[in-house]
Amino acid sequence: MSSAAATRSPAAPQSAVRSPSRSRSRACTRKRRLARLAGALSALALCGLPSGSAAASAGRVSLPVIERQVMCVTCKIPLNVAQSPQADRERAFIQSLIDRGLSERQIKRALVAQYGSTVLALPSAHGFDLAAYLVPLAVLVVLLAVAALLLVRWRRRGSEPLPASTQEELSKADAARLQADLARFD
Known about the structure:
By secondary structure, the protein is mainly α. Helix content is 64%, strand content 0%. The model is unreliable at 1-6 and 51-57 (pLDDT under 50).
């Protein structure tokens, strides 16, 4: 038997010897480390994903990016799924603008100048076109308010005690007639 083994006592395990404050501080330290790690990962993810405007300002505009944002003016469907001669002409026009080095915003302006505002997949965010964004939002708010009111009424109804008896007792004559009717069906 070694001297180290002889000095150890067969007392309580080490986890029971630790003080509660020390284990709490270790738990807090672990939580802080996890929070820092989560923050770093989310920051890395945000930095790694280019947004549409960042990609446009960096000069990385491509035909597929623009195709998803514009419509075929004859088919009235997104350009990336349109298969028509007009869609091919629009793609060629967009590719020529990309080759000239125009930004995404400049390409959209050129498309509107060439084909009109119906070429854009999303309406503008000013004037009457703003209603395309505000009306669905208002409908959603109204629906949520109605759902909240109905939920409150439903919960109140469930908490009210039911009356002891809502039906009146049958008279003896009615009870006898009921028994006679039931006996006929047996």
